[in-house]
Amino acid sequence: MKKQIYIFSFIFIIASVVMQAQQVLPITKAEVLTKVSEENRSIKISEQEYLEAKADFRQTNGVFLPNITASHTGMATTNPLMAFGSKLNQEILTASDFNPNLLNNPGQVENFATRIEIQQPLINMDGMYQRKAAKSKMEALALKIERTSDYYAFEVEKAYMQLQLAYKGVDVLEKALVTAIESKKITENRFKQGYLQRADVLSVDVRVSEVKNQLQTAKSNVENASNYLSFLMNETSDVIYKPSDSLQIGHFKIINSETISENRSDIKAMKLASNAYETMSKADNMAFLPRLNAFGSYELYDDQIFQGDASGYIFGAQLSWTILEGTKRFGKAQKSKAEFEKSKLKYEQYVSQNQLELNKAKRMLTDAENRLNLTKLALEQSEESFRIRTNRYEEGLEKTTDLLLAETQYSQKQLEYYQTIFEYNYAQSYLYFLTKN
Q1: How many whole angstroms separate alpha carbon 170 and alpha carbon 189?
Q2: Residue 51 CA neighbour count, 13 Å, CB half
């Protein structure tokens, strides 16, 4: 048994040295919130998704704005038709060019053409609806950024409280270890005096080892909570964080609502996404209608590069109507309608699921509040019981097993009390997150 105690003590000392070797950095919740809002990867991803949707929306400006292209083409030809047409465009035809021999067997003709083209959409109904759908998607992703930020603010609240709880656990167990070691000294003295048996000493030794193991686990919890905070803040350094304040009963401003608000950013985002699918369905139906586009071009011709002695222009309008494209358009319209119906069902499911979470969170808060009162009373009772048994044990009026039981119970009630504070604060924070607009 002594050999096992020495091994546990050695492991505990090594772990303590390793933890002390790591940098311990004090931090406040406000600092964590600031760093998470600036550096968190998930928030940055949602911002890039918004920029992507914004770029898609900007592409739909083509529904209103003209398409302008410019080109300069050079060629040489002996093709009769091309040669005659090139001279005609260059305005250099003479009567001799109508000689049948020259028309049928022309010499090489060089032609350089500069062309500026403009295409202006006039009526494009499916494009208009596609633009409207792209705008709804962009607005939905803007709301997603807001809700993602709210979610990670809630995660910071939870992670910071977990760190506070971990330090409370270390504090409780460090005091329990001091108490257990003191009890061990008293037990060994009384054993030497012949008042106790060897089994009593071994029982105390077991308790000391047990507390050391629990303390090591508590210190590991501190590291785990610190690592999670580092992850949220996108920090890569291996740092042990120490909260600037201790775990206490918190009070959050909670909106007393029986139903989930449709003004909540993620609910509004889901609604906008459903609207986007509805608009895309309308756009696919509008694709059956004709399109009206205006066009025009200005052209410069010459037999020398980058010259333009001759010029001409064309302008007009085109009404185009793709009457049948196999069954492709019908299938696309059916698919977009199904996607719209699916988005409505997903929206209703999401609202219903969040309503379920709201009801559950309210019950969780009520239960945590009740447990908080009960665990506080149990803590006070166990503390008094341990105090009485300690005094009686020092006077030789209490059994070792009863003292160990009282000391163990007191430590457990302290840990349970702090755990209940965490659960109570978490329930408030979660309820605030669910009711925040």
Answers
A1: 29
A2: 6
Sign of CA dihedral 132, 134, 136, 138: negative
| Measured distance CA(289)–CA(272) in Å, rounded | 26
pTM for this prediction: 0.81
202-to-196, 268, 406, 410 alpha-carbon distances in Å: 11, 64, 17, 21
**Tally of CA atoms within 13 A in the half-sphere of 356 that contains its CB:** 6
Which residues, in sequence order, are CB contacts of 317 under 8 Å at separation 6+?
A: 122, 292, 293, 294, 295
**Domains of the chain, each with CATH number or no CATH:** 2-65+125-289+326-435 (1.20.1600.10)
Do residues 386 and 410 make contact, with C-beta atoms less than 8 angstroms apart? yes
∠ at Cα 54 (48, 59), nearest 5°? 130
Tokens encoding 76: 């040489």
Token pair recorded at residue 290? 């004709």
Average pLDDT, the chain: 88
Comparing 231-235, 303-307, 350-354, the range with the smallest average pLDDT is 303-307
For residue 62, give the 3-state DSSP assignment: helix
Residue scoring higher pLDDT (195 or 227) = 227
- Total residue length of the chain: 437
Does the pLDDT value for residue 11 go beyond 50? no
Interval 399-409: pLDDT, tens: 877 777 888 88
Measured between alpha carbons, how far is 178 from 216 in angstroms, rounded to an integer?
14
